[in-house]
Write a structure and sequence with these properties.
about 350 residues; alpha+beta; Rossmann fold; Dna Ligase, domain 1; D-amino Acid Aminotransferase, Chain A, domain 1; 3 domains; five-stranded antiparallel sheet; four-stranded parallel sheet; about 25% strand; binds adenosine-5'-diphosphate; binds magnesium ion
Length: about 350
């Protein structure tokens, strides 16, 4: 039996739900007789001593900056000293919510993806725009639900964003309509009244980061009315289709999901199971569109809305290079937990 340190999570999801992996992990650990230690990563004074004597540490940190920015650093530091089995480990999480890192990993490992260009100098971006074939896709490194993905139809639109991104920076690619003056004045009045009444601002900064000094363009893949989301947990692939938002090329965040496994092409399942193995991921989510019937990956992530996994009627595994369908629903939290215990078992048997 092991001692497993768990950081409680309670993430607000884009779909309006809340999500906690830790809630289920606690139940599973208790059911299987492991000892649980609830820790607090935000507690500067006690966190490291709370971990002492544990075999593993689990924290499903999510995309909000205060969670993700700390999560990536903390997991990497703990893994560096090799004392604990970590979920998510560094391989699994280092490129989370960073499409620029993903672009380099995809190229370095030969992952099929739309052609992508990242520029770190304004002039290089301008030179690119002069000879680009429009439309092209512009993405910020960080963003969810298609908020920071848009189409550029001509050089003028491209130059607008180059000026922004190599100027003061942006937090989103959505162009906000300015508020009418009377609304703006009313909002400012409310803020001033709150300050005068001594009402405290929110404890946590939830506003997105300012992104600047780099730009990512991507080949636009036409004729997709949906994307595929394939979530690989260990050796299992869960998959569903997300239909595009009405009148839009983007599927992410549409909420229009089809879980029918008959609609998922075998090539995509094989590709993702093989990639997850080759890259050594504990968990990886792929967003896929098709170019001439061939799957190409537009995003990779370790985090997702877990209820979408539980809606899948089954999942696929590869046995002797043949795809096998395993009927039945499974919770993502359960699959992650089972895999983690195996990982600790393996580590312990190696050190015997
Ligand atoms: N290069 C592309 N060509 C065509 N459609 C794309 C491309 N990249 C992304 N999309 C569409 O836009 C959506 C959002 O893109 P994605 O890179 O996954 O960002 P997000 O982080 O917002 O999910 C995808 O779900 C897909 O439908
Ligand atoms: Mg996506």
């Amino acid at each position: 039996m092991y001692t497993i340190a768990i950081q409680p999570d309670d993430a607000p999801l884009a779909s309006g739900r809340r999500q906690s992996f830790s809630h289920r992990w606690l139940e599973l650990a208790k059911e299987s007789g492991h000892e649980v230690r609830i820790v607090n990563v935000y507690d500067e004074e006690h966190f490291f001593s709370q971990l002492k004597g544990s075999e593993a540490f689990m924290w499903a940190f999510w995309n909000a900056p205060t969670s993700r920015e700390l999560g990536k650093r903390m997991m990497a530091a703990l893994e560096h000293v090799n004392a604990l089995t970590i979920f998510p480990n560094w391989r699994t999480s280092w490129f989370f919510e960073d499409k620029i890192s993903q672009r380099y990993l995809m190229e370095a490992s030969g992952i099929p993806t739309p052609t992508t260009w990242v520029f770190w100098r304004r002039q290089d971006a301008i030179d690119f725009l002069k000879q680009a074939k429009y439309p092209i896709v512009l993405k910020l490194a960080f963003g969810i639900c298609s908020d920071n993905v848009c189409l550029l139809h001509n050089i003028e639109e491209g130059e607008y964003w180059v000026a922004k991104l190599f100027g003061e920076g942006v937090t989103t690619l959505r162009i906000k309509e300015p508020r009418p003056l009377f609304r703006e004045m009313a909002a400012r009045g409310r803020d001033a009244a709150k300050a005068l009444l001594g009402m405290t601002p929110p404890v946590e900064n939830t506003s997105p980061d300012i992104q600047r000094g780099r730009i990512l363009f991507q080949e636009f893949i036409p004729d997709n009315d949906h994307d595929l989301r394939i979530i690989v947990i260990g050796k299992r692939a869960f998959a569903f289709r997300r239909m595009n938002r009405p009148g839009d090329f983007r599927a992410s965040g549409s909420g229009l999901i089809d879980w029918n496994p008959q609609q998922i092409d075998e090539a995509s399942i094989r590709l993702t199971l093989n990639l997850a193995k080759k890259l050594g991921q504990q968990v990886i989510t792929f967003d896929i569109v098709h170019r001439n019937n061939e799957p190409v990956i537009v995003e990779m992530s370790y985090y997702y809305e877990a209820w979408t996994v539980f809606q899948c009627p089954g999942h696929w595994v590869l046995k002797d290079n043949a795809l096998e369908w395993i009927e039945g629903k499974m919770k993502a939290e359960d699959a992650i937990f089972v895999d983690l215990i195996h990982e600790i078992d393996r580590k312990c048997s190696l050190s015997l």
